[in-house]
Design brief:
The protein contains 17 helices and 6 strands. By secondary structure, it is of the alpha/beta class. It folds into 2 domains: 168 residues, Serine Threonine Protein Phosphatase 5, Tetratricopeptide repeat (Alpha Horseshoe); 130 residues, Rossmann fold, CATH 3.40.50.11980. The chain has a 6-stranded mixed sheet with strand order 3-2-1-4-5-6, with helices on both faces. Helix 7 runs antiparallel to helix 8, helix 8 runs antiparallel to helix 9 and helix 8 runs parallel beside helix 10. It catalyses: Endonucleolytic cleavage of RNA, removing 5'-extranucleotides from tRNA precursor. InterPro entries: PROP1-like_PPR_dom, PRORP_C, TPR-like_helical_dom_sf. Pfam families: PPR_long, PRORP. Belongs to the PPR family. P subfamily.
């Protein structure tokens, strides 16, 4: 009796229902080749939005397999371009799947455009829609574009999670290390955030360093501060000049600029112009003796007395009492 009921249910399935049932099976098993065959055998090349999303979902889930990766990307793009016509209204799932395919193809810009287009269809944005573009930019070392995605994500009220934050940390470290490998050698780093009480003071410090060493220093400043300086007409020209000369490095949003100038000063073994006592960093070290010695030998302090700048260079010799073990000094002038 049950067998007869099952046969009747199967007989009642319409072609559309049978198509959907087969598509669901392909989706559950992540069978890309079966999905492609199903689409090619369909009566109409135009799909409903729900069916299109299922096909794109299968494509995006096939990216991890090297054997199906290329065919998944090509099939997914062909489907999307065929349906992306005047009256087509994709939803968040459509755009997310396509963003993943675009990122897998190395087209981070297109993935970002797809993510931003969510607002055009009155769809609530989700982090998963932006993640492919961000991960793609981070993977290709395009730090500035990754930061742009990060800012856009924040602007729509979303927050990055651990995978995205980890990718950003890697690209930030990579871009900073690449910058320090540039052919320009810096004898001095200026902690601009600490110096920047006024544009004139910062400019005076940079010029004084150049006057004493005949080389321009590296000016490290947070991008947020750079943006505010560029908005000020009186300060814009100076920032643009430093940028053109390769003297200015803007630390990314969400980063502590202290770690950038500190890392650069240690790696390049150069002087550091700052009045920052760096107490936070001393407390975070397991052993602070070395750090105190390094500060003593490399930190350049500055003062402005009645508008006149004075740089205090590190002492030529250590100020700490030196202990010499097992030393013998013969003060006698006679040999007996």
């Amino acid at each position: 009796m049950n067998h007869q009921n099952t046969r009747r249910k199967k007989q009642k399935l319409t072609p559309e229902a049978q198509f959907r049932a087969t598509l669901d099976l392909c989706s559950r098993t992540k069978d890309l080749s079966a999905a492609v065959s199903l689409y090619e055998s369909s009566a109409s090349p135009t799909l409903t939005l729900n069916n299109l999303n299922s096909f794109l979902y299968i494509c995006s889930n096939s990216l991890s397999n090297p054997e199906t990766r290329d065919s998944a990307i090509n099939f997914g793009f062909n489907l999307f371009h065929h349906h992306n016509k005047e009256n087509f209204k994709p939803n968040e799932a459509t755009l997310t799947a396509m963003a993943r395919l675009a990122a897998a193809k190395g087209h981070g810009d297109y993935a970002f455009e797809l993510a931003k287009s969510v607002k055009n269809y009155a769809v609530a944005p989700k982090l998963r829609t932006y993640a492919p573009a961000l991960i793609c930019f981070c993977g290709s070392g395009e730090a500035d574009k990754a930061y742009e995605v990060e800012e856009h994500v924040k602007s729509v009220g979303l927050h990055l999670e651990e995978p995205e934050l980890a990718a950003l940390l890697k690209v930030r470290a990579f871009s900073w290390c690449e910058f320090l490998r540039s052919p320009i050698f810096y004898d001095c780093i200026v902690d601009s955030g600490y110096v920047l009480n006024s544009r004139e003071q910062l400019d005076d410090v940079v010029k004084e360093v150049h006057k004493s060493s005949k080389k321009w220093p590296l000016v490290v400043l947070h991008k947020k501060r750079i943006r505010s300086l560029l908005e000020d007409v009186s300060k814009r020209k100076l920032i643009e000049e430093w940028t053109d000369q390769g003297l200015l490095y803007g630390t990314p949003y969400g980063s502590n600029d202290d770690w950038y100038w500190l890392y650069a000063a240690v790696k390049l073994k150069c002087l550091l112009v700052t009045n920052d006592e760096m107490r936070d960093h001393i407390f975070e070290l397991l052993g602070s003796n070395f750090f105190f010695r390094w500060k003593e030998r490399h930190q350049v302090r500055y003062t402005f007395m009645k508008g006149n700048l004075k740089l205090t260079m590190p002492p030529s010799y250590s100020l700490v009492i030196q202990v010499v073990i097992c030393a013998f000094v013969n003060t006698s002038t006679e040999i007996r």
